[in-house]
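Support request, please re-run this one:
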Amino acid sequence: MDFSNKNVAFYIRGRTIRTIAKQQGAIAQFAKTHNISQGRMEIFEDHCDSDEARPELFRLIENAERFDAVVMYSYHPLHIDIEKYQLLENALTVNGLEISLIHS
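Re-run finished. Output below.
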């Protein structure tokens, strides 16, 4: 997929600085590799445990029309099983978003 002319949302979730930093590094490399300019990307970060609310994820979903694609490190940091991830993916793709996982 060509991301160079797309508005891209990145979603990160984690409790520890290490988890967040790992995802931030992967996203920075992804943006560089795919020539995504700073002006065309927005990062949504939820600093929370797996059982806590994720306000940034819901903000991303509510603003889905602003983006062409959503990129996440993988569904594992979401701490949801594959079936729940597929429901989330379906909710986003209904709004016309393409979903990319850096590590599946």
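The longest helix spans residues 17-33. The radius of gyration is 13 Å.
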